[in-house]
Amino acid sequence: METFEVHTTRREELIRLTSALQELVDARGWRDGALVVFCPHTTAGLTVNEDADPDVVADMVAAMGRLLPRDAGYRHVEGNSDAHIKTTLVGPSLTLIVAAGRIMLGTWQGIFLCEWDGPRNRKVWAQWLGQ
């Protein structure tokens, strides 16, 4: 298993991980298999979405804020229940296909860490399943 850290700078943001994960695949010489990526935090998750237009990322963060406002009368005393719920919606993990040493993504897709309670230092775990 590989571990790397991601430093976030805002309470809510999406951080691109595509290049870092591809660099990991390249460095390890992984060719054909699956890369399982896991975020071991309850207020940050992972997603695959459009990476061609930065407005999509901004729209995703804004939409989550409208769906789950920070101060909506939650009972959790830490004041970050919205972040826990947002993480549940996006999920903590991804399984990515790797073929011929390349992470297989659609033309416009990228891999993101979704920060909902930052800024923080986050860990991402990556496990190779393959030859």
Proportion in β-strands? 35-45%
What form results from the Cα inertia axes? elongated
The count of domains is 1
Helix percentage range: 25-40%
CATH superfamily: YjbQ-like
Task: Give the low-confidence spans.
Answer: none
Describe the structure.
The structure is a single chain. The chain has helices at about 20-30, 55-65, 80-90; strands at about 1-5, 15, 35-40, 45-50, 95-100, 100-105, 110-115, 120-130. The strands form two sheets. A five-stranded antiparallel sheet has the order 1-8-3-5-6, with helices on one face. It has three helices and eight strands, in the order E-E-H-E-E-H-H-E-E-E-E. The protein has a single domain (about 30-130), classed as YjbQ-like (Jelly Rolls, Sandwich). The protein is an alpha+beta fold. Helices cover about 25% and strands about 35% of the residues. Belongs to the UPF0047 family. It comes from Solidesulfovibrio fructosivorans JJ]. This is Secondary thiamine-phosphate synthase enzyme.
Keyphrases for this structure?
single chain; 131 residues; alpha+beta; Jelly Rolls; five-stranded antiparallel sheet; three-stranded antiparallel sheet; 27% helix
Topology summary:
Blueprint: E1 2-7, E2 13-16, H1 18-28, E3 33-38, E4 44-50, H2 54-67, H3 81-90, E5 93-99, E6 102-103, E7 109-115, E8 121-130
Antiparallel strand pairs: 1-8, 2-7, 3-5, 3-8, 4-7, 5-6
Short description:
The chain is α+β, with helices and mostly antiparallel strands. It has helices spanning 18-28, 54-67, 81-90; strands spanning 2-7, 13-16, 33-38, 44-50, 93-99, 102-103, 109-115, 121-130.
